[in-house]
Amino acid sequence: NSLPTAYTTTESSPEWLNKGDNSWQLTAATVVGLQTIPGILILYGSIVKKKWAINSSFMVLYTFACVLLCWVCWAFQMSFGQQMFFFVGRPHFALDQKYLLGQGFAGLYPRATLVFFQFVFAAITVVLVAGAVLGRMSFKAWMLFVPMWLTVSYTVGAFSVWSPKGFLFEAGVMDFAGGFVIHLSSGVAGFTAAYWVGPRESKDRERFPPNNILLMLAGAGLLWMGWTGFNGGAPYAANIDASLAILNTHICTATSLLVWLFLDVFFFEKPSVIGAVQGMITGLVCITPAAGLVQGWAAIIMGILSGSIPWYTMMVLHRKIKFLIYVDDTMAVFHTHAVAGSLGGILTGFFAEPRLNRLFFGDDPRYIGLAYALKDNRSMAGFRQIGIQLAGIAFIVILNVVVTSAICLIIRVIVPLRLTDEEMEIGDDAVHGEEAYALWEDGEKFEIAQRNKMFDVQDIESRSVQMTERF
């Protein structure tokens, strides 16, 4: 069983290939993929009303498949390939065997590994956008939205911030694993899309209970543990920075969850499970741009702030600003991702430790947190870093408001952007012809089963009255 001549043992393991790094990177990519399928699929499908369980989960499943095809056909090269403009790469296939088996621009492994690793990040970003429009966006409109937004928005953010040729990367923006490219982008884009799609039905906005809290926690748990690959894979190697990034991720997340929980108990007197999950998410998001760049004590401080500032914007400020009240952001992605992502980006510019920066960015003196710059009498370098972080935030916000608005306006010319009132009243059965929970037999509709049950109860009551009269 000898290998074909084109794939000899030497060629399958070239000198530049580090098998340990390659194994870790593929593992990290798979774990991040599991965050989406099945993690967020379960989370979305269980945190919504029963009538939206299938629609919400299906949006995630469709997105994952659609993004992968677009990614290998043109989007990966637009994000990490040859420069077309200063903010985006040239669209091209990432399917050629010779191209995929060559060494990637980062890490000691083939481009095929890099393509897959970056794909799962692109997929989860678009899935997070979906969280803002659950329960009323037309599925056909969403089918168009995914490839359009990936192409015109995500690739621009990824190339600008992460590509070695991107203008924000060259300027010195620090985004370790996606605080800007993924979370700030999805939070702003989701909020913008929610504005154009419009709110849910009034009764859904007033009361939108999860259909299965235990499943919701299972999805949230997959999301939390999956962040090991999310931030741990960012150094592109199985090195000490990856280890630190993983530990900092979980420290910040646990702290954020507990702070959010304590605030709920103190101000509302009840420990909220959904609130704890929100605190978990804000902690994960906040530490992402800083995971391998800060010390453990800084991760705790970031957790305290990520559990309190987004809590305040969501639970207090949101109820006082008319525009925030008007925009129906189903999963509150504006607070959990846009606010927490911006917070993490700014705190990265403050807490980033020079020695850790060198592990990730190389020997470049520009990268220094303001706290250390003040200590080392390099205040101008520290304030410059904060300024660059703020500039990165501004670029991502403007990009996603403009591009997402344009996409929504174009789509609604082609297909309805919003479901009809009847479809929103019925939910999954009207949109997909399917329902999540089959509580009846032999294909009998739930409503019919309930009506038959009611008639049975009325019949029993009638017979009881008749028996009483006889006696």
UniProtKB/TrEMBL annotation:
InterPro entries in the record: Ammonium/urea_transptr, Ammonium_transpt, Ammonium_transpt_CS, NH4_transpt_AmtB-like_dom, RhesusRHD
SUPFAM superfamilies from the UniProt entry: Ammonium transporter (SSF111352)
Main location: membrane
UniProt GO cellular component terms: plasma membrane
Membrane-spanning intervals of the chain: 24-47, 59-77, 115-134, 141-164, 176-198, 210-230, 242-266, 273-291, 297-318, 330-352, 386-415
Domain spans labelled Ammonium transporter AmtB-like: 24-437
Top-level division of the source organism's lineage: Eukaryota
Keywords: Ammonia transport, Membrane, Transmembrane, Transmembrane helix, Transport
Membrane topology classification: Multi-pass membrane protein
Annotated GO MF terms: ammonium channel activity
Entry-linked Pfam families: Ammonium_transp
Subcellular locations according to the entry: Cell membrane; Membrane
Biological function: Involved in ammonium transport.
Similarity section: Belongs to the ammonia transporter channel (TC 1.A.11.2) family.
Protein name: Ammonium transporter
Gene: LOC120277625
